[in-house]
Amino acid sequence: MNKKHISSKDIAADLRYLRLLARDFPTISSVTTEIINLEAILHLPKPTEHFLADLHGENEAFQHVLRNASGNIKRKVRDIFGNTLREQEIRDLCTLIYYPKQKLELVRQTDKNLSDYYQTTLNQLIAVCRNVSSKYTRSKVRKSLPEEFAYIIEELLHESSDDRNKQAYVSVIIQTIIGTGRAAGFVEALCLLIQRLAIDRLHILGDIFDRGTGAHLILDTLSGYHHWDLQWGNHDILWMGAAAGNLACIAGVLRVSLRYANTQTLEEGYGINMLPLATFAMETYPDADACNIFMPKLEDPERSPNEKTCRYLSQMHKAMAVIQFKLEGQLYKAHPEWGMDDRALLERMDLEKGTITLEGKEYPLRDTFFPTIDPSDPYRLSPEEEDLMQRLQHSFLISEHLQNHVRKMLRHGSMYGIYNENLLFHASVPLDEHGELLAVDIDGTPLKGRELLNAVDMTVRTAYDAAADDEERRKATDFFWYLWCGPHSPLFDKSKMATFERYFIADKETHKEHKGYYYSLRDNAAVCDRIMDSFGVKGKHRHIINGHVPVRAANGENPIKADGKLMVIDGGFAKAYHDTTGIAGYTLVYHSRGFQLVQHAPFTSTEEAILNGTDIRSTTQIVEMMGQRAMVNDTDKGAELREQIADLEKLLVAYRRGFIKE
Q1: Which of 178, 180, 159 is closest to 170 using CA atoms?
Q2: Is the pLDDT score of 645 beyond 50?
């Protein structure tokens, strides 16, 4: 709004709000200064966004991609030094930026002339820092500076050694940093600042948990990250349900962890006491050979346990699987509205015959030793199982580290997000066979599209709402299980989760999980437009971005679908998917000139990256380049700033016309 068009009637209508605004801007001078500042910000280049999905606990690979900004930092280093540095020198400089402390330790062991090294390196880092800070105001950069070196860094960023009048000034600053023994600390501070400024906002499209051993470490990092959001994934929801006290979710978390021999997150990360489970399992299933089908899947030889430990894990794994099938059966009986009674499978077993009947067909069971199952009441926990689950539930509820992480996931997370014309969600928006939004019953109300995801979001939060009544919280807590494996859950959207069949039935036809229509129709541009319309996503460069399903690049599958309107960026961090996909997944960078999809080769190790400068080998694919460079004015933040400017212009008129006194 331009102040020339502001009438006294407009001022009078907003006078109460304008008086509140005047507390922050008490004079005409302060108002005009802020308007000038905001107008200038609108004409800065759009800051860079970084999209990751399906981290699956692979902390080392996550840390590396976070530090190198999916190759964005190397791209900037090449832009600056491509004509003056050799490839190995560029690689060494990038490794220093990613891992400053470790790289400097190697340099100290091998370089005989540290003073020269620091002199050259500091000048290079300052050049990179100037480049990555150029998209931001001085004020924003200043807030990002490490307190210890803030003044010096600010001086170096805004003074150039190319300026003849300042050459000696800049040179003396660098020499004094080296001479006073602060060079190593200063280099580290600059490197971390470059990492901080290279990416303005981080989007995590779900599944921080599962498989890998470092989900808690990833969340520790995110807890201190400057600007991030999370679209919950199905594995995140399973852990959030467990943290809320849902017994089936607790059993599911433990079963999946034991399946992949990953107890570090549970024990070391969150202090969950596994001893009661180990004791119960060895007493109830003493013959480890009878648990062979529960031997853990070992996907990483470097962190695989020995054979004896694997046998213990198989006993615990079986114990928890049986308990999970009991607990989920109880939930299906308690919630007929879910339409999942066909997944209550224990009652369909004939243990005397050693068979199970599914859809009218009888199948032999691979295992019939179930000492805790009462055929007359198969879903009832034995007294020992009941006691075990109460102990485990207590461990989850009192784990302050876990509860703190879930609070962060609630604060920064949601079922979906809309950022700068991009609709973000983890898995799907349920559709019917015609590509129309599918109505899903939520607490007696059929909902679809945006309304469905909003209702799910609210239900998740209700489970943690101390003000909600007990019945509301119980139903909300139960609902986590439907979100994990319900046929029309936006986080799952398959006909079934065939966990039982994969364990106990050899016939692989029973293992098939038929995906919802979203997965087969998402390559249709009209369907994607319909979804984005329903969520109110506007703009000529709008997209859907999600993860969840690994892209089989080895089979020629393209992550860019629907004429560029949808991008699937399953990060492929989990080693389990590398053979299936042929790659280590995708990440996405969205800067002022457009989208770049980065295809990664598997990450070797942090040690390899530091010693040899080995980066994740990646291929960058230009998804969409803008006709002209995008500015802050073109973003969601720009819309907010324009509203603030309009309000300030009203306040300015209010001062000048005497409605409010300075």
Answers
A1: 159
A2: yes
